[in-house]
Amino acid sequence: MPNTLEAQEKIESLKQQLNYHNYRYYVLDDPTIPDAEYDRLLQQLQELERSYPQLITADSPTQRVGEAPLSVFDQVVHEIPMLSLDNAFADQDLLDFDRRIRDRLKTDAEISYAAEPKLDGIAVSILYRNGVLERGATRGDGATGEDITQNVRTIPSIPLRLIGDDYPPVLEVRGEIYMPKAGFERLNQAARERGDKPFVNPRNAAAGSLRQLDSRITATRPLEMCAYSVGLVEGGEMPSRHTDVLYALNRWGLKINPEMAVAENISACMDYYRKLGEKRDRLPYDIDGIVFKVNDLSLQQKLGFVSRAPRWAVAYKFPAQEEMTRLLSVEFQVGRTGAVTPVARLEPVFVGGVTVSNATLHNRDEIQRLGVMVGDTVVVRRAGDVIPQVVSVVKSKRPADASSITFPDACPVCGSPVESVPGEAVARCTGGLICEAQRKEAIKHFASRKAMDIDGLGDKLVEQMVDQGLVHSVADLYRLQAAQVAGLERMGEKSAQNLVAALDKSKSTTLERFLFALGIREVGEATARALARHFGNLPALMAADEEQLQQVPDVGPVVAHFVAEFFQQEHTREAIVALQECGVHWSDLEVAARHEPLAGKTYVVTGSFELIKRDLAKKLLQDLGAKVAGSVSAKTHCVVVGGGAENNAKYVKARELGIETMDEEQLVTLLKEQGVFEG
Ligand code: IVH
C-alpha cells in the first residue's frame, strides 16, 4: 500500500488523466484510448479512494454517480439575469432584425453573425471558481433559478474541473442541457417495455431528469450540455468575438455545438438557416431553430437589451415538431410478425415540415395511459425519421360525443385470436400465414431489396396480388404469368414482362439472403449472414437445436428459440420445398474450408474507390470474417482509406488513435491474396 503522500500524487495524476480522457470522449467526441483502458484507470482511482477516503475531492471523476437525495432545491439568484430571445419566423423578420441593428449602430456595413442551432433543452448556468465546478442552476424565471449542482455533476460532458490555466478565476458558463434523440428513444423504449410512462419528447425527458431530487437517477439519464455563452466573468482575459469565446470554453473543457459557424452577413444567415433546416432530421439532437448573434462583443454591448431579450440576437424558428389535431378514428394494423398496432387516423396537420394524417399509438397500454378517445384533440409529434406519434391528449377539448377505443380480441384481418404475452407490451394475431395481413407483409419483406431483391415488386403491387387472390404464398410469386400481372392496376405488358424477368433473376440467390427473406422473427441481415456462415447449408441449419444455434456469433437464447421454432413448423418446411421446386437456389458455403482470417476484427472503409466498388470491398471483408463499421472508434482495427480521404475525419481520427490504415491498393492485394477478389 502506498503512503498517503504517494497515494495523493497517484490520485492527482489519475484524476487528471481521467478528466482529460473524459473530455476527449464526451466533449470532443474523439477518444484517444480504448474504453477498457479508461475503465482500468477509473478502477485504479476507485481503489485508491477506497483506501484513502479523506483524499476524495469534488472534482474526482468517481463522484459523478449521484449523491443522497435532496428534500428541496435551493434558490439561486442570477447575478446577471438569464435572458430569452426574440423570435423570427420568416426571412423578412430576419431582414428586419438586421436593419434594426444597422439603424441603431448607424452603419451601412455588413454585420457578421455567429450562427448556432437552437437546442431544445433546458437553459442552465454553471459556475466555475478557480476552475472547479461550484454550482449549477436552472434559468428559472431568468432572475431566480434552482440549485441543481448535484444533478449537473453527473453529466459527463460538463467538466468538474476546467482544463488549462488561462481561464478566468470566476467563470459562469451558460448553455443548454439536452437529451440526444437516440438516448431518448432508448429511455422511452425501456419505459414502454416496463409498462412505465414514456416521456413526451426529449426536452421533457431532459427537464424531468434535471428536476430529480435524487441525483443518482439523473446519473442514469443520457444528458449532454452544450455551452452557448458566458454570464459572470471576473478576472482573466476573454476574446472579443462571441465565436472565439465559445472556442475558449471548448479549450477549457466544455462542449460547444459543432455546427456553429460565422455568417458574414444576413444573407449568409439565411443560407445557413436553410442548410441546417435540411440537415435537421439527421442531427442527433432536437433543434427548434437557429440563433443568430452579432459576433462582435463590443457591438453587442452597444446594442444592449429591450425588456427581457437582447437586441443583438434572434431565434429563427423551424416548423414546430408538435402540433394539435383531431383524432378521427383508430385502425389496427397487423405487421409481419402479427404485432397488432393501433394507428391513429388524424385530421391532416402540418408538423415537423410535412403533412401528417396517421400516427402510431404503439400498443394497448399506450392507449390506456394516454386515456385517449376518438374525437379528442391530441398532440402529434414528428421528429426526424421517427414515425409520427400521438404524445398527449388535450382533455379540456374533449367533445361530448367522444367515444372510447376498444382494443380487439380478434385479428381485424383474419379473425384469429389476438394474444398478449405477459410482460410484453405487444399483442399479436395468432393467425400466422393464414392471416392475409401477415402474408402480405411477409411477401413484401421477401421481395425487398436486401432479401430476394425482386426489382419492380413494390408494396402496392403485392397488396393487389394478394387481394385479387393471385398470390397466397411467396412461392406463388414464381408461378405468376406475365398475362396475369399485366391486368393489374398501373401495369402494362412491358412492365409485366419485366417483373417476370426480375422474378426469374431473383431465383439465383445466396443462402444468407434467402434466410433473411424468410422473415424469421429477430433474424435481420446480420444474423442471417452469421447463420449462413456458421452452418454453410440449409439442411444443417434446419437440423440444429437451440443449443447448437447459440454457438453462432451474436445468437442468444431468444433468437435461437425463434429460429428453431420456425424451422420446426410444417408449413415452413413446405414453403421452402415449394420455393426450391420453383427454381430458387443458392450455393452452399464450404464450412470446413471456410476461411475467416479477419474474424474478430473491425474495419472501417472510407473515401472513394477506383479498383473495386466500395460495397463489394465491404462485403468481401465481411466474407473474410471482419465486421465492417460505419465510424472509427477505439475498437476499430483498421481503416481502409480510398482516394480523396487524406483530410477525411475518419482517416484523421484513425491516425490520432494510432489505428492501422491501408489504401485501396493494399486492400485489393489483401483480397487477392485471400482469393476472394480477382480484380
Ligand atoms: S442564447 C441572451 N443560444 O433558447 C441570449 N440560447 O429563448 C440567451 N437556447 O432559454 C440565449 N440554444 O436556453 C442561446 N445556441 C443558443 C441556444 C439558446 C438554445 C435556448 C436558451 C434560452 C432560449 C431563448
Report on this structure.
There is one protein chain. The termini are far apart. It is built from 25 helices and 26 strands. By secondary structure, the chain is α+β, with helices and mostly antiparallel strands. The strands form 7 sheets. Strands 14, 15, 16, 17, 18, 19 and 20 form a 7-stranded antiparallel beta sheet that branches. Strands 2-13-10-3-9 form a 5-stranded mixed beta sheet.
State the main characteristics:
five-stranded mixed beta sheet, alpha+beta, 679 residues, 25 helices, binds 2-(butylsulfanyl)adenosine, single chain
What is this structure, in a nutshell?
This protein is α+β, with helices and mostly antiparallel strands and 679 residues long. It is built from 25 helices and 26 strands.
* Rg from alpha-carbon coordinates: 30 Å
Structural class: alpha+beta
Strand proportion: 15-25%
User: Which small molecules are bound?
Assistant: 2-(butylsulfanyl)adenosine
Please outline the major beta sheet. Answer: 7 strands, antiparallel
Question: What is the overall silhouette?
Answer: globular
Counted by DSSP, the helix tally is: 25
Mean model confidence by pLDDT: 92
Low-pLDDT segments, ≥5 res: none
Find the count of extended strands (DSSP E, 2+ residues).
Answer: 26
Span of the ends, CA to CA? 61 Å
List the helices and strands and how they pair.
Blueprint: H1 4-27, H2 35-51, E1 75-77, E2 86-88, H3 91-105, E3 113-119, E4 122-129, E5 132-138, E6 144-146, H4 149-152, E7 170-178, H5 181-194, H6 202-210, H7 215-218, E8 224-234, H8 242-251, E9 261-263, H9 266-279, E10 287-294, H10 297-303, E11 305-306, E12 309-310, E13 313-317, E14 322-334, E15 339-351, E16 354-360, H11 364-370, E17 377-381, E18 389-393, E19 418-420, E20 427-429, H12 436-447, H13 459-467, H14 474-477, H15 482-486, H16 493-506, E21 508-509, H17 511-517, H18 525-535, H19 538-543, H20 546-549, H21 557-568, H22 570-581, E22 585-586, E23 602-606, H23 614-623, E24 627-629, E25 638-641, H24 649-656, E26 660-663, H25 664-673
Parallel strand pairs: 2-13, 21-22, 23-24, 23-25, 25-26
Antiparallel strand pairs: 1-6, 3-9, 3-10, 4-5, 4-7, 7-8, 10-13, 11-12, 14-15, 14-17, 15-16, 15-20, 17-18, 19-20
Helix pairs in contact: 1-2, 12-13, 17-18
The protein binds 2-(butylsulfanyl)adenosine (IVH).
2-(butylsulfanyl)adenosine (IVH) binds at residues 83-85, 116, 118-119, 123, 139, 176, 228-229, 291, 310, 313, 315.
